[in-house]
Structure formats: structure tokens, C-alpha cells
């Protein structure tokens, strides 16, 4: 094949300019979400500075190609199986203004077919996965169960009920959900009402598009019921509030949303092509899966629940459909080694629990299942293959957990464990155990962290110097930056990019203006990105390289929460977030106490500051507050959404302040605002 054209140099440049800057939503990421960032300036000029793949990179990528079986075409057959219809090519789903909600055309540089035709700048295993994730359309899973794939990071499934449809996991955005419903589901399956929507878990790619399918009226009247695992709402709303800004910024690296779509940029998301862009909603569930073995009948369809909390998501469940001999594995068995830790940042996940949930699934339904489908990727058909797939997934997560703990108990530290651990060939040679999303390395370090925390037990690592202080001293010890860069170039030429990254990172943190250092570090990151089988790793490295070369492009910051999320947020969670914004230094030596009275929700809180920390009590009233603030939760929501501010509401008479209003002003002045575009690859 000829090397695909970089879209920045071809006719798709315009489309690329319109869509490149979308800050990430993601599976496993949830709430902080991708509000569209309209691109006002020029495109990132990454392409001009891109280096070709080095010989060392070509050699690494060749080793992948030799290890894996490209002759095995089963995935390509499965990804195409049961196709009913597709949206017309080129696939562009309209979004808001000039920004497409979904644009598969941008990935048109990917060829078709199972043969290994990866360009030197892309790991051949990832390239194959990227090609598989180009398959799109409405597909039959079995008679009465369908999937819509290829129009978002996630997959939507549909079950035929007695009176209508049961929808599983309605994508990230309403634009995608409503478009595929109108253009694929209604014309090809028939126009019938939706009776239930099931969220398999609490990540945004499995609920965000819900209001594209169901109206407020249908939810209010109970005509459509929302089914979710217990704990769903708190998990969905909460995961990204406390650390939302940092997670969102890191997600912009992980999902490659700032990168050009090209063989030197993003080629895939590792779990689906990428994330859709548009309106994210949340309809709060009213029916809950609570217990493994629980039976539910939804519109005449029986399901049997397997709970999977704290596996891939804090709230998650899988279920068996006896009528169809089908098993929905949610996101616990997909065609990749998933994240036991996600690089955007989140709590570490437990490989042991994860594995046990798959064991329960096999014990309960293994003999009777003819097809397993999930919320990403294509299904697996036939009992033999289903059982083999679920066993391998079960063993993969168990292996990651157990072997890490075996090595830790022998005294190995996380970096040592990450370096030696490999999946056995019996797993590693299976395509669905490859590291497209998680990796063996970072999942291993995560399992150490799960059981033993961040400290490896070596005193030298207990109280290390921070990066800039360490960088300055390392550079001095190594004979100054010119000497370091000269030596580092030698290692670069030998293909030792990890070592180059480590030492040159010290130079960049010691001398952030050193252009030669940033260039060399960017070059090393880029080769590491070209070698990465994992899409998040590739996207992290290539985004890091881009920001070293071009600086941080401060696009309009995304709005961290959708209106639905804010409405669903318990007041406790909002106050906890206020506590995180409290600047301890500014509040030092100060005290404050307020009564907060919400008239519409009839909630009373006492909120205080003392010892540079915030505290509060629910259902309480202080007898001697500095001030009492009386307002509605609805107005508080509007403040949270940035639609208004306290001052305007006070002036307009919507907020009543009794007591010392100045004290309230002081409190607000102690709160930090967070800059989304903080530096990552430079100090
Ligand atoms: Zn997902």
C-alpha cells in the first residue's frame, strides 16, 4: 500500500480544523466532559515537525507483526457479521454549528482488510485495531438483539421487547443517539417506542446520549424506565467532580483529542474510534440492579443480573438474557486488555474482583450462552468461542493481579514488576487480550498500587526532590545541559527512547526555555508513541511531543459538568468540591460560619471554615452564623453552570443574605479557580 496521506496536507484539512479540538470524554472517564472547543486559530502545526519512524521503531513494530497472527481473520468476520445497514459514507453526524458530532471521514486514511499494512509510524497491532473500529452500522447480534457500532467510542445495543425496544448504553451525545435512531433503527427495525433504557455502568459513554432518545415527558410519566446498577447516580456524577479539572486535562492527552487524525497523530481510541462531540445528558435511573442472580422482566424480556461493582467502573452490572441465550458483558469482557488504571487518572481498579465477576458469569451461564456482546467492540458467537473468550478474559485480569502480588511478595518494586511481567503466550497471542486500551505495564503497576500504595519501600523514594529541583541538580551532576543533550543524542541514535525521555526530561524541567532539549524530548516521545500498541499511550506520547514543540494551546476551557449532571449532584458533593477549591493559605487564621437554606429542596446546611478546612453539617442550623444565605437549589445550579453569579442573584432579590454579607464575600475570595490548560510536559 502507499502511505496514507496526512489529513492536514490533504483535502480533509478543513474538516480536520473544525474537529480537532475536542476535549475528551471517554469511557472510563465520565463526567468531565467534552464540551466542544471551537477551533478559532490555525491547526496545531505538529505535522511540520514530525519525524519519520526511526530504524529502532521500525524494528520494534516488526517484532509485533511477527509475534501476532495477521492471518487470523475472525475479528474482521465478526466486526462485519450481521450488517443490516450503515449511514452513508463518508460518515459525518451533524453536531453543533460547524463542529461535527462524529466524523469518520477524518479516519479515511485507514485501509480495509486484515493484512498487515501498517505504516512505520503506527504499531501494527494498533493499526489493525484501528481498521477494525472503522466498521460501522446497524448489526444483528441474534434475532431480536441488535447493535449500532462505529459511531462513537461505545456501542449501543437494542433488544426487542413485547411492546417496543429496550436500549442498552445510548452513546455519549444526544446528536449521535438521535441520528442513528432516526436513520438506522426506525427505517430498518421499525418505529416502535422505547420502553426501557439500561445503563450498564456509570461512565459517560454509556448514558450521555439518553435524551436524544427519550423525552422529559416520557421519563416523567414513567413511559420509559431507566435501569442501572445500584450506586449508579452517585458514581456517574461523582467520579469527575472531585478531581475533574485534572482528569479532564489529562483526558485531553489520553484521547488524543488535540492531535491530527493521521498516521502521525491519532489513529484510534483503543476502545472505539474516538469520542463523539456534542450534548451530554443524564436521565436519572429509577430501577436498579442490586444483586447477582436478581431476575428482572423488562417489557416481557427476562434478564438475570451479575453485579460487577468496582471492576471497570464503580457501579457496573452484566446480565444474561435466557430467551436469547445471550450474555451482555458490559465493559468487563471486551476485545482488549482493559484498564486496571486509566491514564486520565481515577481510582485503581481491582483485577481480582473483575476476574471473579467473570467466573460467576461462566458458572451461572457459561453452558447456556451462544453469544456474548459488550458495550464496546463486536460480539463473539458460538458457545465454544464464548466460553474460551470469557475464560481468557477472566484469566487475564486474575493473572495481572496475582502475578503482581506474587512478585511484590518476593520484594520486587513496581518499576521492576512492570518491567518483567508478561502475559503468557496462551493469552498474549489472542487479539482480544492485546493492550489496545490498558497495558500489561501500567495495569501491573496499578495492581501494586491497589494493594500497597504509591510507596515502593525504598527510603530514597520516600521524599524525593520535585522535578525542577531534581532536574537542576541532575543536569549539574551530568556536566551541564549541553553535555547531557550530546550524550542523549547518542542514546537517541541507538533507539533508547525511554532513557532519553528520562534524562532529557530533567533538562526540560531545569531549563524550560531550552529549545534543543524540548525538541529532543519531543522526538523521543514521538518514537515511543509510534511504537505503542495502546492508543492511550500513543496519544499521551504524541500529545506530549506536540505541546513540547508548540506549547499549550489555550483553547476555550470545557465546561466540566453538563446541566443534567449538576442537577443530579447531591448538595454534599457540591460542598465537598467547594472544600477542594478552598485555598488553605488564604484561609489561614480565618473562620466563618454560614447557614445555607435551600427553599425549593427544603435543605438546611451549616457551612464553616476553620483551620484552613471546610466543614458542614446537613439538616442543621447555626444559632450564631456570620450570615444566613437563603436561595433555591435551582439558582445554585445556575451558578454552577456559569449562567449567573451570586452578586447578580443578590441584586435581583433571588438570594437573601441576612447578617454579615462581607464575610460571605471573604469566603468566596478564599476559593481557587482551576486553569484547565495547566502544563504537563514542562514545569
Ligand atoms: Zn465505555
Explain this structure to me?
The protein is 37% helix and 14% strand. With 683 residues, it is an alpha+beta fold. Strands 1-4-5-6-7-8-9-10 form an eight-stranded mixed β-sheet, covered by helices on one side. The chain binds zinc ion. Zinc ion binds next to loops.
Strand order of the largest sheet: 1-4-5-6-7-8-9-10
Class by SSE composition = alpha+beta
Helix residue percentage: 25-40%
Name the overall outline: globular
> How confident overall, as mean pLDDT?
91
Number of helical elements:
24
Q: Which small-molecule species are bound to the chains here? A: zinc ion
Uncertain spans, ≥5 residues at pLDDT below 50?
1-48
Rg for CA atoms:
26 Å
Number of strands: 21
Beta-strand fraction estimate: 5-15%
In whole angstroms, the N-to-C terminal distance is: 42 Å
Give a quick account of the main beta sheet: strands, pairing sense, barrel closure.
Answer: 8 strands, mixed
How is the topology of this model organized?
Blueprint: H1 13-19, H2 46-49, H3 55-67, H4 74-80, E1 83-85, E2 92-93, E3 102-103, H5 124-132, E4 137-142, E5 145-149, E6 156-160, E7 165-168, H6 174-189, E8 194-198, H7 216-220, E9 225-229, H8 232-238, H9 244-254, E10 287-289, E11 295-298, E12 301-307, E13 317-321, E14 326-328, H10 351-365, E15 371-373, E16 380-381, H11 383-409, H12 414-420, H13 425-428, H14 440-452, H15 467-477, H16 481-493, H17 497-510, H18 515-531, H19 535-550, H20 563-568, H21 571-581, E17 592-598, E18 603-610, E19 613-618, E20 627-631, H22 633-640, H23 646-651, E21 656-659, H24 661-669
Helix pairs in contact: 3-18, 10-11, 11-14, 12-14, 15-17, 16-17, 16-18, 17-18, 18-19
This protein binds zinc ion.
Amino acid at each position: 500500500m502507499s502511505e496514507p496521506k496526512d489529513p492536514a496536507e490533504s483535502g480533509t484539512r478543513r474538516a480536520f480544523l473544525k474537529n480537532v479540538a475536542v476535549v475528551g470524554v471517554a469511557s472510563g472517564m465520565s463526567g468531565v466532559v467534552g464540551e466542544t472547543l471551537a477551533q478559532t486559530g490555525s491547526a496545531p502545526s505538529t505535522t511540520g515537525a514530525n519525524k519519520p519512524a526511526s530504524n529502532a521503531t521500525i524494528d520494534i513494530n516488526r517484532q509485533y507483526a511477527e509475534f501476532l497472527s495477521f492471518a487470523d481473520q475472525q475479528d474482521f468476520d465478526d466486526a462485519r457479521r450481521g450488517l443490516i445497514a450503515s449511514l452513508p459514507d463518508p460518515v459525518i453526524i451533524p453536531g453543533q454549528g460547524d463542529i461535527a458530532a462524529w466524523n469518520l471521514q477524518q479516519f479515511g486514511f485507514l485501509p480495509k482488510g486484515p493484512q498487515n499494512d501498517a505504516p512505520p509510524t503506527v504499531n501494527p497491532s494498533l493499526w489493525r485495531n484501528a481498521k477494525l473500529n472503522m466498521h460501522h452500522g446497524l448489526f444483528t447480534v441474534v434475532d431480536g438483539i441488535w447493535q449500532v457500532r462505529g459511531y462513537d467510542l461505545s456501542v449501543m445495543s437494542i433488544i426487542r421487547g413485547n411492546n417496543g425496544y429496550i436500549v442498552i448504553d445510548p452513546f455519549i451525545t444526544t446528536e449521535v443517539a438521535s441520528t442513528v435512531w432516526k436513520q438506522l433503527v426506525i427505517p430498518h427495525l421499525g418505529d416502535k417506542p422505547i420502553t426501557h433504557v439500561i445503563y450498564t455502568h456509570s461512565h459517560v459513554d454509556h448514558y450521555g446520549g439518553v435524551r436524544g432518545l427519550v423525552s422529559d415527558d416520557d421519563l416523567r410519566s414513567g413511559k420509559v424506565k431507566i435501569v442501572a446498577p445500584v450506586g449508579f447516580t452517585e458514581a456517574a456524577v461523582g467520579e469527575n467532580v472531585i478531581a475533574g479539572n485534572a482528569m479532564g486535562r489529562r483526558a485531553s492527552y489520553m484521547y488524543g483529542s488535540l492531535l491530527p487524525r493521521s498516521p502521525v497523530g491519532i489513529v484510534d481510541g483503543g476502545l472505539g474510534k474516538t469520542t463523539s462531540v456534542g450534548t451530554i445528558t443524564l436521565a436519572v435511573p429509577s430501577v436498579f440492579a442490586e444483586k447477582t442472580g436478581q431476575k428482572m422482566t423488562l417489557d416481557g424480556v427476562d434478564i438475570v443480573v451479575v453485579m460487577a461493582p468496582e471492576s471497570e467502573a464503580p457501579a457496573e452490572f452484566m446480565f444474561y438474557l435466557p430467551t436469547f441465550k445471550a450474555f451482555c458483558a458490559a465493559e468487563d469482557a471486551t476485545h482488549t486488555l482493559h484498564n486496571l488504571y486509566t491514564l486520565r487518572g481515577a481510582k485503581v481498579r481491582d483485577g481480582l474482583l473483575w476476574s471473579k465477576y467473570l467466573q460467576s458469569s461462566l458458572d451461572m451461564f457459561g453452558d447456556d450462552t451462544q453469544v456474548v456482546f459488550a458495550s464496546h467492540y463486536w460480539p463473539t458467537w458460538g458457545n465454544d468461542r464464548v466460553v474460551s473468550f470469557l475464560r481468557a478474559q477472566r484469566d487475564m485480569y486474575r493473572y495481572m493481579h496475582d502475578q503482581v502480588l506474587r512478585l511484590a511478595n518476593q520484594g520486587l518494586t513496581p518499576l521492576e514488576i512492570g518491567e518483567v511481567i508478561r502475559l503468557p503466550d496462551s493469552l498474549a497471542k489472542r487479539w482480544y487480550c492485546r493492550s489496545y486500551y490498558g497495558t500489561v505495564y501500567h495495569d501491573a503497576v496499578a495492581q501494586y498500587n491497589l494493594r500497597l500504595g504509591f510507596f515502593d519501600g525504598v527510603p530514597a523514594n520516600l521524599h524525593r526532590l520535585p522535578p525542577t529541583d531534581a532536574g537542576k541538580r541532575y543536569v549539574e551532576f551530568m556536566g551541564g545541559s549541553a553535555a547531557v543533550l550530546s550524550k542523549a543524542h547518542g542514546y537517541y541514535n541507538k533507539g533508547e527512547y525511554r532513557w532519553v525521555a528520562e534524562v532529557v526530561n530533567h533538562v526540560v524541567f531545569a531549563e524550560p526555555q531550552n529549545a534543543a532539549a524540548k525538541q529532543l524530548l519531543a522526538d523521543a516521545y514521538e518514537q515511543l508513541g509510534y511504537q505503542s500498541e495502546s492508543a492511550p499511550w500513543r496519544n499521551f506520547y504524541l500529545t506530549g511531543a506536540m505541546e513540547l514543540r508548540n506549547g499549550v494551546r489555550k483553547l476555550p476551557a470545557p465546561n466540566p459538568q453538563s446541566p443534567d449532571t449538576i442537577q443530579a449532584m447531591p448538595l454534599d458533593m457540591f460542598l465537598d468540591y467547594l472544600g477542594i477549591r478552598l485555598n488553605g493559605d488564604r484561609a489561614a487564621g480565618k473562620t466563618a460560619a454560614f447557614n445555607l437554606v435551600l427553599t425549593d429542596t427544603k435543605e438546611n446546611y451549616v457551612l464553616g471554615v476553620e483551620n484552613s478546612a471546610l466543614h458542614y453539617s446537613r439538616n442543621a442550623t447555626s444559632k450564631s452564623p456570620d450570615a444566613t444565605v437563603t436561595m433555591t437549589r435551582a439558582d445554585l445550579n445556575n451558578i454552577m453552570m456559569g449562567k449567573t453569579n451570586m452578586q447578580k442573584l443578590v441584586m435581583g432579590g433571588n438570594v437573601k443574605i441576612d447578617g454579615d454579607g462581607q464575610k460571605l464575600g471573604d469566603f468566596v475570595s478564599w476559593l481557587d479557580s482551576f486553569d484547565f490548560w495547566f502544563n504537563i510536559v514542562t514545569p
